[in-house]
């Protein structure tokens, strides 16, 4: 039912609606166990689905970044959110740009120069 005029308004309309419903039979015991076996184990983390509206250009940038990182877009977005939350954490101690540049100059390259 997608419109208000599709919603039963009277007891007779409700009875007719309920009579029109059909249900699948319950699974057989062996099928029920197979269905239960497909569930994640107890204590597993739960993933919540969110709908997110992005401007087209931002979505394209995310797609390119995810492809460069060789991860799905959802993984890239999740990691970006995790990083943003880590930066905003109360126990975070930001450093100045000068301190960051000093620290970076002390690092050795990950790969030898070609």
Structural class: mainly alpha
Strand content: under 5%
- Cα Rg: 27 Å
Broad shape:
elongated
The quaternary organization reads as: single chain
Overall mean pLDDT:
86
Largest sheet: none
The number of E-state strands comes to 0
Helix content bin: 40-55%
Determine the number of helices (DSSP H or I, runs of at least 4 residues): 5
Distance between the termini: 65 Å
Low-confidence stretches: none
H/E series? HHHHH
Walk me through what this model shows.
The chain is mostly helical and 114 residues long. The chain has a domain at 54-92. 51% of the residues lie in helices and 0% in strands. The chain contains five helices and no strands. Helix 3 crosses helix 4. The mean pLDDT is 86.
């Amino acid at each position: 039912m997608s419109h208000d005029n599709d919603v039963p308004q009277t007891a007779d309309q409700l009875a007719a609606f309920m009579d029109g419903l059909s249900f699948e039979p319950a699974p057989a015991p062996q099928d029920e166990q197979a269905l239960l076996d497909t569930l994640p184990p107890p204590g597993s983390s739960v993933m919540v689905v969110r709908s997110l509206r992005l401007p087209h250009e931002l979505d394209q940038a995310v797609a390119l970044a995810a492809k460069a990182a060789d991860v799905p877009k959802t993984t890239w977005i999740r990691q970006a959110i995790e990083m943003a939350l880590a930066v905003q954490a109360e126990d975070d101690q930001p450093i100045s740009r000068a301190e960051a540049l000093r620290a970076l100059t002390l690092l050795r390259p990950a790969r030898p120069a070609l």
